[in-house]
Write a structure and sequence with these properties.
Helices cover about 45% and strands about 20% of the residues. By secondary structure, the protein is an alpha+beta fold. The longest helix is centred in the first third of the chain and has 23 residues, at about 10-30.
Amino acid sequence: MLDFLSPYWPHIVFVLSVVMGATAAIHVAMTKEEVRSAVGWVGVILLSPIVGALLYLIAGINRVRRKVIFNRRRLRQGGVLAHLDNYDADDISVAMEFGRRFLAMKTLGDRVARHPMTSSNEIQLLDGGDAAYEEMLSAISAAKRSVILETYIFDRDRIGRRFVATLGEAVARGVQVRVLIDAVGARYSVPSVLGMLKDVGIRVAVFNGNVIVGLRQPYANLRTHRKIMIVDGAVAFTGGMNIREDFSRTCKGEGCAIDTHFRITGAVVADLFAIAAEDWHYASDEILDGEEWQIAAPAHAPGHAKLIRAVASGPDRSVETNHKMLMGAFSVARSNIRIVSPYFLPDRELISAMATAARRGVVVDIVVPASNNLTLVDRAMTAQFDQVLKGHCRLWRASGPFNHSKLLVVDGRWAYVGSSNMDPRSHRLNFEVDLEVFDIPFAEDLERRIDRSIETASRVSLEQLRARPFAVRLFERILWLGSPYL
């Protein structure tokens, strides 16, 4: 057989390259919404026969098509929360308390996000890993019915082992426990924590792949970056915190990394559960709809307390939802925009929106770490600092340990916190979850935290950037070209 085909291998390769290249190029033209991305991929496919098509299969197909099986209607039909609609925020109260421009933000969220703005919520800021982990572990220890935990990284270290032990004790008490870890994030520890979790009876699933065999194709570049934990359908935890000892001062001392997490109760817990349960079903095929997964009724009457929306983003039907929310927030700002981001690589649209706000007289402060845990990402984002500074925004390098927090406040009234970084990966490739919060005390608390960071930060200037050696700046620009996939 091989002897028969050997004279024809050039013809076979040619036909294969044409078929694969044409198929990939057609898929690019029909599915990509950004013309620069489409042109780039077509160029790669045409200039690299076969190899270009394979690269596109691995890294270029961004949408996961999956059924949305968990939503408000399903929760109501199951009796989980029969009067959930009563907790949806109304336009009149938002306009009266926050003004018509922030009513426009609610309208934007209603149209681009899958979940409504809800009332009767409480949100507690958990400062640093020790505070967040203790609250989460205490909640697991008190669990009576169920725990679902979704995370990007779950390390097999001292903090990870504490979670494994506490979750195992919950299983022993009869609590239903589910743990979902991203396939890429699970590889941060060798060996992974999966075996330890299974050994204590915990049901575990891996998102988009298998830790041993490899990643699920053609979605190898798509990850769940979400951090969600729901206990007894009553209390939720979300934010930027992975499960690893790098964020624990007890384990790592004063030089530990900094992060911000949040403890939430109220009507929005149902939506956070819906997001996590949908991801669990996608990875395991199990539907979490038994009595143990019912959502507890909020402690407050409808219309009470903080207004919060759960904003899910991802390369499915929620693609770029977080990006759209940021564009809207920058457009309604009048006095200030305060941003904290560990990986600041906004696309041209976001840079233009920030610069336009700054040119209108809005004070735009962007705080990034002086020391970063990802050197290549830090170099890439430094390469585009000049674009932000030319737009009259102020850029600060925060001193001290690496800060992994993702915080945004507009005019001291509207806040946006969660797992999303301000980079192309979070906006187009990762599955993310954020909270849109309408609450003046909460926003002011975040602003005070940002002010404290700025007090000890160094301001970045165009003169400083241009004074660096040409070779350094060229190297950073080369890295910047690959920033969408860093």
